[in-house]
Write a structure and sequence with these properties.
By secondary structure, the chain is α+β, with helices and mostly antiparallel strands. The protein is built from 3 helices and 11 strands. The chain has a single domain, classed as outer membrane lipoprotein receptor (LolB), chain A (Clam), CATH 2.50.20. The protein has an 11-stranded antiparallel β-sheet, covered by helices on one side.
């Protein structure tokens, strides 16, 4: 049971790291401005879906700035929710129906560090470059879309004509969708450039005005799943 829970927590960290990777092109400043505007909110909710070795993994994360996070994870192999709360460098976790337990210090530190990487002001330095794709419809709404190319590991190819080679249609890319009215990120996907309708990772962002993250009560109480944002609060 504890081993399964620990694997879930590490999976959640991996999801966030994968979501943060970036790219190559022209509209980096616009993407950086949207992320900076998100960091200046009081908090936001991120609902994600990811295809992994464990099957489909669903995660809902509530962030309350500057240093609070609450996440609930379910997966195909283990549909029983695992809830984790991190406040500063302290963390607690439990599986649905069980008592809260403090996280191992190394796990708590890793999750706190990843939270700060997600929320921190140093994102722009590692953001990479993005192409402007203009307005694109998603679920009946129009968003500003930006595509980033995942950087290849290893030395840069400086041979003649290297930059003129056509890009592979199945290359990994990340696309960020920004609400043109609020300037806030609304959606982020990661997948193959030719299969973006079936991304391996998808995040939907909303900005509930009543979002909060509190330290858990002991002993464990029934799991409280994040409330759905009201229609006027969704972005």
């Amino acid at each position: 049971m504890k081993k399964q829970m620990m694997c879930r927590l590490l999976t959640a960290v991996t999801v966030l790291i994968a979501a943060g990777s970036a790219a190559h092109a022209d509209c980096k400043d616009e993407v950086a401005a949207a992320l900076d505007r998100q960091r200046k909110t009081s908090g936001f909710r991120m609902k994600t879906k990811m295809l992994s070795e464990q099957g489909l993994v669903n995660m809902t994360v509530d962030y309350v700035l500057p240093d609070r996070m609450r996440q609930v994870i379910t997966s195909t192999l283990e549909p029983k929710p695992v809830e984790t709360v991190v406040i500063g460098r302290d963390g607690w976790s439990r599986m649905e129906g069980e008592d809260w337990h403090p996280l191992h210090p190394q796990v708590a530190d890793a999750m706190a560090a990843q939270m700060q990487e997600t929320l921190g002001e140093n994102q722009e330095g590692s953001l990479g470059e993005f192409d402007c794709l203009g307005k694109q419809p998603v679920d009946g709404q129009s968003y500003l879309a930006y595509r980033g190319e995942n950087q290849e590991p290893g030395p840069q190819n400086l041979s003649p004509g290297a930059t003129e080679k056509p890009k592979l249609p199945d290359r990994p890319v990340r696309v960020i969708f920004v609400d043109p009215t609020t300037g806030l990120p609304a959606r982020s996907i990661f997948g193959r450039a030719d299969k973006l309708e079936k991304p391996v990772f998808e995040a939907i962002y909303s900005y509930p005005i009543d979002i909060k993250v509190d330290a858990p009560k002991f002993p464990g109480a029934p799991i409280d799943k994040p409330a759905e944002a009201k229609p006027e609060e969704k972005k």
